[in-house]
Amino acid sequence: MHIYIYIYIGTNKTIINSLSYPLIDGKIKIPYIRLDSFLNNTIQKLEQEGYSLSKLQLTNVERQDYTLNADLLVEIDKKRNLNAIIVKYAESNRSDIFPKGHLKQINNKYRKSIFNQKTVENINSDFNKFSFVSQLKYPEILFTSDTTAVYVYLEKKNSNTFDGFLGFSNNDGKKISLTGYVDLTLENILKSGEQIAINWKSDGNDQKTFKGNIELPYLFKTPIGIKAEINIFRQDSTFQTTKTSVDLSYYLNYNSRFYLGYQTSTSSDIQNLTRTGISDFNNSFLTAKFEYLKPEISNSLFPTKTKLKSSLGIGQRELSTEFENRKNPQIILNIDFSHNFYLNKNNSIYLNSQNNYLSSNAYLINELFRFGGMNSIRGFSENSLQAYFLTVLLTEYRYTLSTNLYIHSILDYSILKNKLTNENITITENLFGIGIGLGLQTKNGLFKFAAASGKDDKQEFDISNTIIHVSYNVKF
Predict the structure, then answer these.
(1) What is the SS3 assignment for 111?
(2) What CATH number is given to the structural domain containing 135?
(3) What is d(CA 207, CA 230) in angstroms, rounded to the nearest whole number?
(4) What superkingdom does the record give (predicted)?
(5) Based on the domain organization, do 211 and 93 belong to the same domain?
């Protein structure tokens, strides 16, 4: 025999709107065994609508055979909207760890929004996306008679990274040359949320590369930022290309941003020889970019789950010789996307797709994309490949042995296109890289080792051509 309870609701519209049972003559009829579920669901719906301090109670309970009657006593506090997000620090004398511009944007996002537990969860998630701070505990809530505030407790987190080595070698002229590489990233050292990156590489003979950029977000506490970058590439004594760019950024949130900018490059034939495919040139582009990052805060081995970088540039190249001055319209397209697919706790698949395209009526060797190495197709030397069109797919099957160690396979593929100088003939090549690697999380950073062999579609894999890629990304 089912026991039912008739609950008198009254005329409270807030309660009536939250009911999932039909209302007849001011009452609802529900099975007694579902009474607790009804009360909990009603409280939850009120909380979601901003009535966080509401209370429900059954009064005047009477029994008639297998039927119960009761009145629902409702105490509804005023509807709560979030008034402020306040940051507190582990060190009470520190007040500059979290940038004021970042805090203002988060406050602007949530201020006056309906307050409920989902709002607190979203605030907690947003603060977890910042790599230069960590939360000491889950955010806390302070209710007063007329305000609602969320307190977030932060401490500084090591987010600066360094990877590199330096060496010396004798070149053919018996002069000492500096070799090695430096990859340095600094974050929030000026307490404004800025990012500074420096990358330098030299093999002592053929190639030297320098990249530097700085990005300042939330200028004047607005969603607007600015980014500047310089890239210098020198190919032995053949040519040198210098690229600079300046972008204005708009932050949808800290990990999603649009850019509009201007990019220019200058390339010089160092020896001023009449060489096929190499010439002095200048180019300029108006650019539009979009970047997205989804971090995996709790995973030190794979700290990034999804990453997207895309850019489109429209402009022209000016080619100057002693005989003529030619202008050539050009378009540059770049898309770099990566994602971790988690199969279960220990198994995952990593995919990274890199795509670059330069549209032009004619191509110069010193304006082509250069790739190959640890961060592009593995099994080939750094920047040893060049093309006006390329697609690279990097894949890894990863098996996690422990919380700080994983091993992985390497299976990379690339298709690239080049055009013969002064001929309208396109050459297409297919490249493959295969190997194994591992990642080890140490106290100071992430050590990566990879051994891979590369080949094109006309060769067989040769283990003697295996290239070792090593990096140790230290955090400080």
Answers:
(1) coil
(2) 3.10.20
(3) 17
(4) Bacteria
(5) no
Which of 32, 50, 75 lies at the terminal end of a domain, its last residue?
75
- DSSP-derived secondary structure for 121-174: HHHHHHHHT-TTEEESS--EEEE-SS-EEEEEEEEE----EEEEEEEEEE-TTS
The CATH number of the domain holding residue 442 is: 2.40.160.50
Structure tokens at 200: 């330098």
Q: What share of the chain is helix, strand, coil (3-state, %, to 5)?
A: 10, 55, 30
Residue spans of the chain under pLDDT 70: 1, 93, 166-178, 204-205, 273-276, 321-325, 421-423
Question: 182 with 198: CB under 8 angstroms?
Answer: yes
Pick from 119, 139, 156: which residue ends a domain? 156
Tens-digit pLDDT profile for residues 360-397: 998 999 999 999 988 899 999 888 899 999 999 999 99
Provide the domain count of the chain: 3
Distance in angstroms (rounded) separating the CA atoms of residues 88 and 402: 34
Strands (E) across 27-128 are located at: 27-31, 55-64, 67-75, 84-89
- Please give the Cα distance from 20 to 28 (Å, whole number): 10
Residues 127/133, Cβ–Cβ less than 8 Å:
yes
With beta carbons less than 8 A apart as the criterion, state whether 267 and 240 touch: yes
Pull the structure tokens for residue 91.
């060190």
Distance CA 420, CA 429 (A): 13
- Same domain assignment for residues 108 and 35: no
Query: Long-range contacts of range 125-132, CB-CB < 8 Å, 24 or more positions apart?
Result: 126/253, 126/254, 127/152, 127/154, 128/295, 128/297, 129/253, 129/254, 129/255, 129/295, 129/297, 130/98, 130/102, 130/254, 131/157, 131/159, 131/187, 131/295, 132/156, 132/157, 132/159, 132/187, 132/188, 132/193
| pLDDT digits 0-9 by tens, 279-300 | 899 999 999 999 999 999 888 8
Query: What is the pTM for the complete model shown?
Result: 0.86
The whole domain housing 112 covers: 84-156
41: helix, strand or coil: helix
Q: 332 and 470 share a domain?
A: yes
Token digits for 156?
A: 């500084």
Do 63 and 125 reside in the same domain of the chain? no
Q: Are strands 140-143 and 84-89 parallel, antiparallel or unpaired?
A: unpaired
- 118 and 28 part of one domain: no
Helix axes 100-110, 117-128, angle to 10 degrees: 150
